[in-house]
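Now for one record.
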Amino acid sequence: MNISASLNVFRLITNPSLCLPHSTISTFNQLPIPISKAFPASDKGRKPDIRAIVLDKDNCFARPKENVVHEAYRDKFHALKAAYPQSRLLIVSNSAGTNSDPSHADAAILEKNTGIPVLRHSTKKPGCGPEILSYFRNIPEAGVTEPNQIAIVGDRLFTDVLMANMMGSWSVWVRDGVVEEKGLFTMIERRLAGYLFRKGYSPPTPLSQFEG
């Protein structure tokens, strides 16, 4: 059970825009490189300064419950790694690396198969934003000094996208993923997002401390 998601989803009652993505792609293969191309420019014509990327695993770049990059996405995955060296990429999953992963065995396998660090976190998404920020701030070579320099890529609006907006980061929603999701929560979050967009809602724009 994801207690973090159950609690944080109530934030949407007062601020429903928190579940809306800044960019939407069909599958991982449509992820632009550099990822800043996915986001709108500021009033001054500048694209976001994205220095690090957080990747969800299940139904983002891998089939659910598998710890290997989906074959159809391997070229894109290698291109992403080349554009964003190891310290600038981080996998944050609600399975591998959590307390649901005994001894973090899945996290170790995923790291071996992808060559990318997997965050070990006790709080599941969307509540592990502070752990992500702490991770990057402890890696100077990543160059991350503010949350708006991070982009979150994932397939869930109530976890990946909600977390990004809570952090003050950018989000890319992988709408279709590797396999079709038919669960109740998936249906609810998609219908809510569609309704909000039709009503003119938009996601909060991440700002630096100098712009706020």
The beta strands are 23-25, 52-55, 89-91, 150-154, 170-174. DSSP finds seven helices and five strands in the chain. Helices lie at 3-8, 11-14, 74-83, 105-114, 129-137, 157-167, 184-198.
